[in-house]
Amino acid sequence: MIIDPKQKMYGLPILKIREIIRLAMEDRFFASKRELIIKVASLTKKSQLISKSIFEQMISEGLLEMEKVKPSGFCLKATDKGSILGVASAGKPISREKATQLLDELIDRAKRVNKNDELVYCVGCIKVFGSYLSDKETIGDLDIGVKLIKRYPENFLKQNNYRISQAKEQGKRFGRLIDQLSYPYFEIMRILKNRCRNISLHDLDSDAIFERTETKTVYEYQVI
Q1: Torsion angle of alpha carbons 107, 112, 115, 116, nearest 10°?
Q2: pLDDT tens across 112-148, in order?
Q3: Which of 8, 103, 118, 135 sits at a 20 to 30 Å CA gap from 124?
């Protein structure tokens, strides 16, 4: 699916709606209903009243659903319909030949990551899904599922903290504690994406879309 980045939905840029859905696909929304609305408001930069209306419209139109996980808590999930928008591309269509080139280059970057002992994670598996698995000669973007594995599971916390301290020494600043703790993970994801707008990366372990999406494995790391 390809979307027009200039399009609006519920009075917001459609890319902002896509961002909310993508966070829901990654199970990043877990709180009371009121707190969920506050989180949506922080993303939309709108008032809580407007954000509540957007939140309720996305649920009533079947893009999102709330799953009760405890007496006062909910997990905001993307539906099948919402996931289609969540993985939609806002970039220009590319040829299958170009997509294959991007995939080959991404696999090469994964292999380099796996040879770098300073990095906290290895790339365990890469899968493709979406329009790349069709017979179309022109596709919206290259949808990729990635599984990262801890390089030093028995010493993970020490290695993770050391990598963070290295980043700080090089001038990296973190606004939130969660951004700091997850830096080694997202460092790998940034390397793989390589700032390419035509690559859409998803975590195979946390993204709910893989529960109902056909995939094809294109790379597996053989641990020696």
Answers
A1: -130
A2: 999 999 999 999 999 999 889 988 888 878 999 999 9
A3: 135
Rounded distance between C-alpha atoms, residue 18 and residue 137, angstroms: 25
Confidence of residue 171 (pLDDT cuts 50, 70, 90): very high
Prediction pTM value: 0.70
Torsion angle of the four alpha carbons 57, 59, 64, 68, in this order, in degrees rounded to the nearest 10: 140
| Residues 208, 21: Cα–Cα separation, whole Å | 11
d(CA 145, CA 201): 6
135, 91 contact by CB (below 8 A): no
Q: How confident is the model at residue 224 (pLDDT cuts 50, 70, 90)?
A: low
Q: Provide the H-helix boundaries in the chain.
A: 14-25, 33-44, 48-60, 80-86, 96-115, 156-169, 177-181, 183-193
76 is written with which tokens?
A: 């905001």
- For the CA atoms of 190, 211, 181, 75, the dihedral, rounded to the nearest 10 degrees, stands at 130
pLDDT of residue 40: 85
Q: How far is CA 104 from the centre of its chain?
A: 20
Q: Which helix (H) or strand (E) holds 202?
A: strand 199-203
| Degrees to nearest 5, angle at CA 179 with 154 and 26 | 85
Q: What is the tens place of the pLDDT at every residue in 176-197?
A: 788 899 999 999 999 999 999 8
